[in-house]
Amino acid sequence: MKKAVLAFYKFVHLQNPHEEKEKLLSFLKEISTVGTIILGKEGINGMCSLDIAKLEKTKSFLQRNFSLENSDFKTNVSPSDVFKKLSIRVKKEIVMLGHPEINPAVSVGTYIEPEEWDTFISKKEVVTIDTRNDFEVELGTFKGSVNPKTASFHEFSKWWRDKSKFFKDKKIAMFCTGGIRCEKATSFLKSEGLDEVYHLKGGILNYFDKVGNSDKSKWRGDCFVFDQRVTVNPRLQPGDYEICHACRYPLGLNDRNHVHYEKGISCHNCFGTKTEKKISSLKERKKQFELTKDRTSKNE
């Protein structure tokens, strides 16, 4: 059965995130929704997978309780659930920059619509910065964009303070997967005194939805997503990647043909970094998974 994949976020003050978590958990369990959602005093950030028939009911609940609007939702369809379970966590920040004083609900950069993005970032006075993690950028990005080579978004502010002198007198355009990281990054840059800061509205996923696989697109490659699809292409179809169970690194076909790749145990990225105890644990996990898969197959 086809499933709806719903992505959303909103910077909105939540007085009691733990109380909101219980209400949301009860509602989503009742309609058999799976996914990952983060709540905090600064708002909500999540992606979930659910029956298409329950999509409007879910959006209405989120709109009533978290002030989301129709334009805050990004939706596409998958052949099956893209998450295994439902996880709702409360954190200090719904996207971890490490500067809880930054408030995108008060100050944020200027949005650029997906249909205008390629033209805007082609201007000579514009520097385009990919705010995602280094491994995500390796899988795909906009042609000509700057890769900060950060291992996590938490490192972005330090990178900017170290490198900002190279972007003097430039307009800064930023983008990320769904919009939340670059929205917080633009708020941070404005707090640093920059005026001409811009970001892709709705992120790469919204760009794929509105612009897709256009011949004029400056996008190259796939986009990493934080679910079982691993990546999606510009047509929002799952890409040809798998996750290494040992280190969570995304693996393409060439990576899976590498001499150091052993399914469920290691890949070229983590080979030689695990203790014997960890390797034994991974092998046992792989064995149990294959036994469960075999029993399921025999019962079908």
- CATH fold name of the domain at 110-223, please? Oxidized Rhodanese, domain 1
Q: Tell me the number of helical segments per DSSP (H or I, 4 or more residues long).
A: 9
Coarse structural class? alpha/beta
Please indicate the percent range of residues in DSSP E strands (runs of 2 or more). Answer: 15-25%
Radius of gyration: 20 Å
Strand elements, count: 15
What is the end-to-end distance? 17 Å
CATH superfamily of the domain at 110-223: Rhodanese-like domain
Overall average residue pLDDT: 93
Strand order of the largest sheet: 4-1-3-2-5
Point out poorly predicted stretches: none
User: How would a crystallographer describe the biggest sheet?
Assistant: 5 strands, mixed
- CATH architectural designation of the domain at 110-223: 3-Layer(aba) Sandwich
Description of the molecule:
With 300 residues, the chain is α/β, with parallel strands linked by helices. 32% of the residues lie in helices and 22% in strands. The protein is built from 9 helices and 15 strands. The protein has helices at 17-30, 55-66, 114-121, 134-139, 156-163, 180-191, 203-210, 253-256, 276-299, and strands at residues 3-11, 34-40, 43-51, 73-78, 86-90, 110-112, 126-130, 140-142, 171-175, 197-200, 219-221, 223-224, 231-232, 242-243, 250-251. It has a 5-stranded mixed sheet with strand order 4-1-3-2-5, sandwiched between helices. A 4-stranded parallel sheet has the order 6-10-9-7. Helix 6 links the parallel strand 9 and strand 10. The two termini are 17 Å apart. The model has no long low-confidence stretch (mean pLDDT 93).
